[in-house]
Amino acid sequence: MKPFDYLRPAGLAEASEAWADAGSSARLLAGGTDLTVALRHGHLATDLVIDLKAVVELGPDIVVDAGALRISAGTTMMQVGRFLAEHGSLPALREATEVVGSIQIRNRATLVGNICNASPAADTVPVLAALGASVEVYGPHGTRLRPVADFIEGNRRIDLGAGEIVTAVLIPLPDEPRGSAFDRITRRRGVDLATTNMCCTISAAGEVVMAFGAVSPRPLVVRDETGTLADPASDPADRQDAIRRLAAHATPISDVRASADYRSAMLATMAERALRVAQERLAGMMTDA
């Protein structure tokens, strides 16, 4: 590991200023589950690590604010999963957080970090993209919001300017019932990166949104505008055709985890599975209402 300087700022303004001054020669540390591994194995070198864990404004926090669930940058995967389980909300996001690494990893890794790492195989990103989530970005020029689906610009590339730090994830809470489901395929059970993953949401108004991961450099969000997928009584052949049309937007690659052909073939299977679960959850919500 190459030696580097270490800074542990106590405030957001201090962290932003140090980040702006250092530029590309520095790295931000939140949970550190990706950064420390990359540094240790020599996949990444840096002159400065800015540790954000002591920044007061980024401390673990989950609140409902202005019709959205706000999850601060210091909130771990485990904390997010427990909150969602206790409140019975956003089941797809809860499912995604529960498969990110091991229990030890989830107690360190943050939801914001999973976004900012910008891995095409990140499990929470397709869910957040399908739910229309945004990141809250603080910087020298103020605070701005950016949809997660646009914030991630490609493999390990994000829309973050000089001195900018992601402070939270904002997930809009729907005004009407919405069913959601997460699915993924891995090479083995247990701790593994996703070969492919996805999220499906369906609203009471009949809008179906699917977001796929690990099949394009950035999260792929597609919508069914035919109404076929929203109708549980639609012809199975028509549903399969609609799913295939949506999955055709994917541009998977072949790597050590799977071939491009395998990934393409699995998308339809996953989409059908997730759609069925999302429909069942929506029906349950409508019944309870």
- What's the helix count? 10
Gyration radius (Cα, Å) is 19 Å
Helix/strand-derived category reads alpha+beta
**DSSP helix fraction:** 25-40%
Distance between the termini: 56 Å
Instruction: Report on the biggest sheet.
Output: 5 strands, antiparallel
User: Which percent range describes the beta-strand content?
Assistant: 15-25%
| CATH architecture group name of the largest domain | 2-Layer Sandwich
Instruction: List low-pLDDT spans.
Output: none
What is the element layout, followed by pairings?
Blueprint (H helix, E strand, L loop, with lengths): L4 E3 L4 H11 L3 E4 L5 H6 L7 E4 L10 E4 L2 E5 L4 H11 L3 H7 L5 H4 L4 H6 L7 H7 L3 E6 L2 E6 H4 E3 L2 E2 L6 E8 L5 E8 L10 E8 L4 E6 L6 E5 L11 H12 L12 H29 L1
Parallel strand pairs: 1-3, 2-3
Antiparallel strand pairs: 4-5, 5-10, 6-7, 6-10, 8-9, 11-12, 12-13, 13-14
Helix pairs in contact: 3-4, 9-10
Would you give an account of this structure?
This protein is of the alpha+beta class and 289 residues long. It folds into three domains: 5-51, Uridine Diphospho-n-acetylenolpyruvylglucosamine Reductase, domain 2; 59-172, Uridine Diphospho-n-acetylenolpyruvylglucosamine Reductase, domain 3 (2-Layer Sandwich); 178-288, Enolase-like, domain 1, CATH 3.30.390. α3 (77-87) runs antiparallel to α4 (91-97). The protein is built from ten helices and 14 strands. Strands 4-5-10-6-7 form a five-stranded antiparallel sheet. A four-stranded antiparallel sheet has the order 11-12-13-14. It has a three-stranded parallel sheet with strand order 1-3-2, with helices on one face.
